[in-house]
């Protein structure tokens, strides 16, 4: 029978849940796009490095390069142009204008002198009102002098001013020309007259040379053109600007020419990023497709994988420029807690996939360290930097993923952080021995960087996996451990209101957990699923035989179709209770799938006895069929335990036959077609069930009668009748005797039939 069932179930392996080709390509494409965006060599370097800033690090030339320095060339040309004096030309208009001013002044004075309408004091005030050109106290002298004397002064002033302005007077030479005025005055004039002439002439001496802007510009342009372009050369690792120095325009130009501050997207850089992103995304996609990664087939987990991978690469791209090149040898480039990503993926998705992601991240971070010109603060990263990055983030990520794979307690994350720190330190020490510049003082810094890496990885993974699990609806191991506690409200209700169902769930849990562990399935999830798979029976516990302690069966009073509806309803009731108590989706799957789309066979056969024309769909469970190895194991364990419990004979051979029969029936019904179980795994499950059930339903010895009890002492018979020995009391609650008591009822029970 089992061999026939195996043939029927040989197609079940084809239903393994994994990404198909189109889904894999879509995932790889989305990841490639995110990686390109994360790695794109665009970094707003100007925001942190501007002219006049103090350099926060020493900038060195990434390679040998030479360029014509526009800054230095312009400086020399400006100096040459500034050395060219202004081209001046004589302006006759200045002489005419100043002579006109002198004529008007003389006319005004003569008008005041000859006025008959003004008193002397008014005339003095009027002279003071002229342009205040006269020496102090000369107003009375001007009013009192004869007309011929004033005429000599006027003519003398005109003659002197004309001589002065006939010569070239440059700007700034006014005072020197004014000093020459006394030498130009007619010697025949008196001292008072000569002083008055000087007073009239000196204020009117102004420059009469004007700048010819056109000729000046031409002369300066010629001087600029005579300066050849200044060429600047740098050798690889030559210092451009040292840490703590002010970044001037010359240093800014050199850094820009070296490509350290450029925001341009060079096609070669973009091409390198695209190719590497496509390779990385393609490898991860092919890994998921080739190894049939079940956990990654879930859309939410795929989104989480995409987000964590892209964010990790972006974080590396933003962080690495801040700490490399490491001239001070602080090794802070290796303190970035990238191991948190593989640790999170191991906890929320799958451990094997987390290892693959750790390898991809290590390669991408190494690419950032070695090549990206817009990201690495200086292209002086040595090959040892690349080796360190590859080792620290590769081996460290793998160590973190392995340490928290299927972790059920938070202390495993602490252990994971310590392991990441230890592996990172070991890698740094290994490369340190190869470093020609190694120093003893490097070891404390390496220990600090490794410790920060491990500590931050542990903190981030612990803090993020709870939040991300909630955001993406992923059930964590910690949640499962909490749900496995028998004092959970729903399990407490099951113990109080449906103790038989609770007892059955515990036995099925033990049965299924061991089988799951043997085939590499999630044993913790299986155990929790078993605990909750029958919680729907809380709505009508008395309709299920394991809870009918009084021996009355309500199904005897209703027809088979209604009984089947009540029994199958416990699946829907269980889903309602699960949602009410907010059980995770993975646990709810066990409630919905533990009967699949099978029939309530007992009531269906009973209905056939009453009416040969019965619709089988009225006796079917709502399903769906088991969609994973874990739910399929619980279906088989539930059915196998019920079949053995309901059997009147429980010899090892009978138990084996019952288990084989149950598995063969489920295969023949196609209930396992959509699960991930293989024939090899089903053989392992079958053997595990048989071994466990043999242990549960082992033969028991009959205790011999107590001789003392056969001959009771006088007066003690009534007391013994009221008191049972502790041993007999314990024996009455043993599994074997409990089964013997319910043996006849369970042979025909509706629950056994389902």
What this model shows, in words?
The chain is mainly alpha-helical and 754 residues long. It has three domains: 233 residues, no CATH class; 124 residues, no CATH class; 254 residues, Hypothetical protein af1432. Helix content is 62%, strand content 3%. It has 34 helices and six strands.
Summarize the structure.
With 754 residues, the protein is mainly alpha-helical.
What's the domain count?
3
Largest sheet report: 2 strands, antiparallel
Q: What proportion of the residues form beta strands (DSSP E)? A: under 5%
Using only CA atoms, what is the Rg? 51 Å
Q: Give the number of DSSP strands.
A: 6
Terminus-to-terminus distance: 20 Å
Report helical residue fraction: 55-70%
Q: Determine the CATH topology of the largest domain.
A: Hypothetical protein af1432
CATH class of the largest domain: Mainly Alpha
Largest sheet: spatial strand order:
1-6
- Count of DSSP-assigned helices: 34
Protein topology:
Blueprint: H1 2-8, H2 21-39, E1 59-60, E2 65-69, H3 70-83, E3 88-90, H4 92-114, H5 120-129, H6 139-144, H7 147-166, H8 174-179, H9 181-184, H10 191-201, E4 209-211, H11 213-225, E5 230-234, E6 239-241, H12 249-257, H13 267-290, H14 299-323, H15 340-348, H16 351-370, H17 383-404, H18 411-432, H19 442-471, H20 477-483, H21 489-497, H22 499-519, H23 523-532, H24 560-580, H25 585-593, H26 601-610, H27 629-646, H28 652-669, H29 679-696, H30 707-710, H31 717-722, H32 726-732, H33 735-747, H34 750-753
Antiparallel strand pairs: 1-6, 2-5, 3-4
Helix pairs in contact: 1-28, 2-13, 2-14, 3-11, 4-7, 7-10, 13-16, 14-16, 15-16, 15-17, 15-19, 16-17, 17-18, 18-19, 21-22, 22-23, 22-27, 22-29, 23-25, 23-27, 24-25, 24-26, 27-28, 28-29
């Amino acid at each position: 029978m089992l061999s026939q069932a195996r043939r029927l179930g040989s197609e079940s392996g084809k239903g393994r849940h994994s990404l198909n080709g189109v889904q894999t390509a879509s995932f790889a494409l989305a990841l490639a796009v995110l990686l390109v965006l994360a790695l794109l060599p665009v970094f707003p370097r100007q925001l942190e490095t501007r002219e006049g800033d103090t350099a926060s690090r020493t900038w060195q030339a990434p390679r040998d390069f030479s360029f014509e320095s526009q800054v230095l060339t312009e400086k020399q040309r400006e100096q040459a142009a500034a050395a060219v004096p202004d081209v001046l030309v004589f302006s006759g208009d200045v002489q005419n204008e100043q002579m006109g001013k002198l004529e008007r002044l003389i006319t005004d004075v003569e008008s005041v002198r000859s006025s008959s309408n003004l008193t002397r004091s008014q005339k003095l005030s009027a002279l003071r009102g002229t342009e205040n050109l006269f020496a102090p106290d000369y107003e009375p002298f001007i009013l009192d002098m004869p007309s011929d004397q004033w005429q000599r002064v006027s003519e003398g002033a005109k003659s002197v001013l004309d001589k002065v302005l006939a010569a070239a007077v440059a700007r700034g030479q006014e005072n020197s020309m004014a000093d020459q005025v006394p030498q130009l005055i007619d010697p025949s004039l008196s001292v008072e007259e000569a002083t008055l002439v000087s007073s009239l002439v000196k204020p009117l001496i102004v420059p009469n040379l004007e700048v010819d802007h056109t000729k000046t510009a031409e002369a300066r342009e010629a001087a600029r053109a005579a300066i050849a372009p200044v060429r600047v050369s740098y050798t690889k690792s030559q210092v451009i600007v040292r840490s703590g120095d002010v970044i001037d325009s010359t240093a800014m130009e050199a850094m820009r020419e070296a490509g350290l501050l450029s925001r341009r997207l060079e096609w070669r850089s973009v091409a390198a990023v695209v190719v590497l992103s496509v390779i990385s995304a393609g490898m991860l996609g092919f890994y998921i497709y080739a190894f049939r990664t079940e956990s990654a087939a879930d859309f939410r987990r795929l989104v989480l994988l995409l987000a964590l991978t892209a964010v990790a690469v972006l974080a590396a791209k933003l962080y690495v420029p801040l700490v490399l090149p490491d001239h001070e040898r602080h090794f802070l480039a290796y303190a970035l807690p990238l191991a948190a990503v593989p640790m999170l993926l191991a906890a929320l998705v799958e451990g094997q996939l987390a290892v693959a992601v750790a390898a991809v991240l290590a390669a991408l971070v190494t690419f950032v360290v070695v090549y990206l010109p817009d990201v690495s603060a200086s292209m002086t990263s040595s090959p040892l930097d690349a080796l360190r990055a590859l080792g620290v983030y590769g081996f460290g990520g793998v160590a973190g993923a392995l340490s928290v794979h299927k972790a059920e307690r938070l202390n495993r994350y602490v252990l994971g952080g310590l392991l990441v720190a230890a592996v990172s330190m070991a890698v740094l020490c290994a490369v340190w021995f190869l470093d020609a510049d190694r120093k003893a003082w490097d070891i404390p810094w390496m220990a600090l960087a490794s410790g920060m890496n491990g500590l931050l990885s542990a903190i981030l993974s612990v803090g993020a996996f709870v939040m991300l699990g909630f955001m993406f609806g992923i059930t964590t191991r910690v949640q499962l451990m909490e749900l496995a506690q028998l004092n959970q409200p729903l399990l407490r209700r099951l113990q109080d209101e449906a103790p038989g169902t609770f007892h059955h769930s515990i036995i099925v849990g033990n049965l299924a957990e061991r089988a799951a562990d043997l085939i590499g399935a999630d044993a913790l999830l299986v155990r929790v699923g078993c605990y909750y798979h029958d919680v729907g029976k809380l709505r009508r516990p008395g309709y299920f035989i394991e809870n009918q302690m009084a021996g009355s069966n309500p199904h005897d009073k209703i027809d088979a179709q209604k009984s089947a509806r009540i029994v199958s309803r416990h699946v829907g009731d269980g889903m309602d209770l699960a949602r009410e108590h907010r059980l995770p989706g993975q646990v709810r799957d066990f409630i919905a799938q533990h009967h699949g789309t099978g029939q309530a066979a007992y009531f269906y056969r009973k209905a056939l006895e009453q009416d040969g024309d019965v619709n089988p769909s009225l006796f079917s469970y709502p399903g769906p069929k088991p969609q994973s190895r874990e739910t399929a194991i619980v279906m088989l364990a539930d059915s196998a335990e019920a079949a053995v419990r309901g059997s009147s004979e429980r010899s090892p051979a009978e138990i084996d036959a019952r288990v084989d029969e149950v598995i063969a029936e489920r295969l023949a019904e196609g209930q396992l077609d959509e699960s991930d179980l293989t024939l090899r795994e089903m053989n392992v499950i079958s053997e595990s069930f048989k071994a466990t059930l043999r242990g549960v339903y082992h033969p028991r010895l009959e205790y011999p009668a107590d001789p003392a009890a056969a001959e009771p002492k006088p007066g003690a018979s009534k007391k013994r009748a009221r008191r049972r020995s502790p041993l007999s009391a314990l024996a009455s609650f043993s599994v074997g005797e409990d089964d013997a008591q319910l043996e006849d009822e369970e042979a025909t029970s509706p629950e056994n039939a389902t």
